[in-house]
Amino acid sequence: DLDSSAALDDARQRLREVFGHDDFRGRQPDVLVRVLAGQSTLAVMPTGAGKSLTYQLPATMLHGTCVVISPLIALMHDQLRAARADGIRAATLTSADSDWRETMDAFRAGELDLLYVAPERASQPSFCDLLTAAPLALFAIDEAHCVSEWGHDFRPDYRQLRPLMDRFGDIPRLALTATADAHTRADILEQLGIPQDGLVVAGFDRPSIHYAIRHRDNPVRQLTTLMGEQPGPGIVYAPTRRKVEDLAAKLAAATGREVLPYHAGLDPHVRAENQARFVASEDMVMVATIAFGMGIDKPDVRFVAHASIPKSIEAYYQETGRAGRDGDPSLALMLWGAEDFARARMRLAEVPEDRQAGDRQRLDSLASLVETAGCRRAVLLRHFGEDPPGQCGNCDNCLDAPGVVDVTELARKFLSAAYRTGQSFGFGHLQKVLTGAEDDRVRQREHDRLSVFGIVDGEDAAMLRPVSRALQARGSLVATEHGGLALGGDAKDILKGDTPVMIVKPPKKERRSRRSRAG
Ligand code: ADP
Ligand code: ZN
């Protein structure tokens, strides 16, 4: 409308004068319009999309100070330097600062555009008093996923922000994060008191990256082939120090290329040296644990490979995002094995109870990406809340559609078992019921008396896991908070026989392997 386009024109003017940028990027305007109109907002955008600008710019336009809550002091000081370089009146209040008095005086006098504080400040009564005595424009909450136990980086201090901000109810809030799946996003909105329609998500697509995900049968051969097809620098992520060393040695021997290892167990000098060589090199391959990559600025990485599954879709996106920052074509290859998932599921039992549901959901989402017969990019972008076209034309499945099998009957049996057992049991229990396993828990619940008991056998039994995962991928089955599976989406249509279910054909050896016992 007229108001918002006028506000945006003003903002664009400022963008040029203060920041020296020609125009907005991606969905920055959508966020800015809301913020300038005083509407609380959650902006989910990938790293580098320009989130900081969406509060820094309003901070220079609105009356009063924008209070920025940010969890990392080092980061805060970087931002402080950058903001001051742009002529923005900014300050920090952290344990590392000695100029508290001046900062507080300036804040109270309305002489600050931006004030950066750590979240632990928020719980201190003195800080609330300080806010009362100063003109406020906006609360900006950086790394907002820290407020959610569903996120991967929960910080209890973030929970103190809502009560604090509620005392200044007419000051708008802007929460920012690069990593938030649907669940975490909903949680952030609730925890920070931001309305549902205040969500702005965008800019996750990396069109120059080709995504490919394959079953791992011979990683050294598969990675050697990749290195042949894709010259130029590359990163191979491996799960353990031992695997890093092993793969680096074997790939070097197999390809004759320079391949170096990188992990936290190496001598710091060696590590720094390997990293420096990688950054300077035009064809070196680094085999590394995920310790490698953070803060490395190398735009011409031509491939990122995963020798086993990453931790989550977020991690996959972030790690593969290190490829092709120069915009030239690059490749992301994931090699996965059933044992990766089995191990990850086993590890679920070891994480604190309150985090298990979130971790399980993250693993299921990753499994959906691995198992999909459809476009990988579409799954990725949908995960980040975007609404992509069904086909990208630049992933393995788009370019070479995999074989699919009709598992409609098995899917109906599975859904029926979930329904008849009360939609509160996980895969393991449903599998036992369907295959007629001798099991105390099954008997105690009298699930051996259900019509679905023992109706699946032989080869079909080994297909239950892929079927379950496919059903979760399409939302016909949804994981409950307690790890059970409940009917969702089009489950009723499948049960009625109105909707067929097709899945990617699992490799032959998988169809009769440990897979069915693994999880
Ligand atoms: P994020 O916080 O989303 O990771 P930053 O706010 O650090 O991203 O911005 C990343 C880079 O993009 C910064 O160097 C910033 O100056 C630049 N940038 C932000 N917005 C624009 C824009 N509209 N035009 C050009 N560059 C921009
Ligand atoms: Zn695709």
UniProtKB/TrEMBL annotation:
Which PROSITE patterns does this UniProt record tie to the protein? HELICASE_ATP_BIND_1, HELICASE_CTER, HRDC
The biological process GO terms on file are: DNA recombination; DNA repair; DNA replication; SOS response
The record, for Gene3D superfamilies, names: HRDC domain (1.10.150.80), P-loop containing nucleotide triphosphate hydrolases (3.40.50.300), Winged helix-like DNA-binding domain superfamily/Winged helix DNA-binding domain (1.10.10.10)
GO terms (molecular function) for this protein are: 3'-5' DNA helicase activity; ATP binding; DNA binding; four-way junction helicase activity; hydrolase activity; metal ion binding
What are the annotated GO cellular component locations?
Answer: bacterial nucleoid; cytoplasm; replisome
Q: According to its UniProt record, which reaction does this protein catalyse?
A: Couples ATP hydrolysis with the unwinding of duplex DNA by translocating in the 3'-5' direction
Task: Tell me the domain of life.
Answer: Bacteria
Q: Could you tell me the EC number(s) of this protein?
A: 5.6.2.4
Q: Which cofactor does it need?
A: Mg(2+); Zn(2+)
The record, for SMART domains, names: DEXDc (SM00487), HELICc (SM00490), HRDC (SM00341), RQC (SM00956)
Specify the Helicase ATP-binding domain's residue ranges: 32-198
What keywords appear on the UniProt entry?
ATP-binding, DNA damage, DNA recombination, DNA repair, DNA-binding, Helicase, Hydrolase, Isomerase, Metal-binding, Nucleotide-binding, Zinc
InterPro entries membership: DEAD/DEAH_box_helicase_dom, DNA_helicase_ATP-dep_RecQ, DNA_helicase_ATP-dep_RecQ_bac, Helicase_ATP-bd, Helicase_C-like, HRDC-like_sf, HRDC_dom, HRDC_dom_sf
NCBIfam families with a match to the protein in the record:
recQ, recQ_fam
- Alphabetical list of PANTHER family matching this protein: ATP-DEPENDENT DNA HELICASE Q1, DNA HELICASE RECQ FAMILY MEMBER
Protein's name in the database: DNA helicase RecQ
Which species? Erythrobacter litoralis (strain HTCC2594)
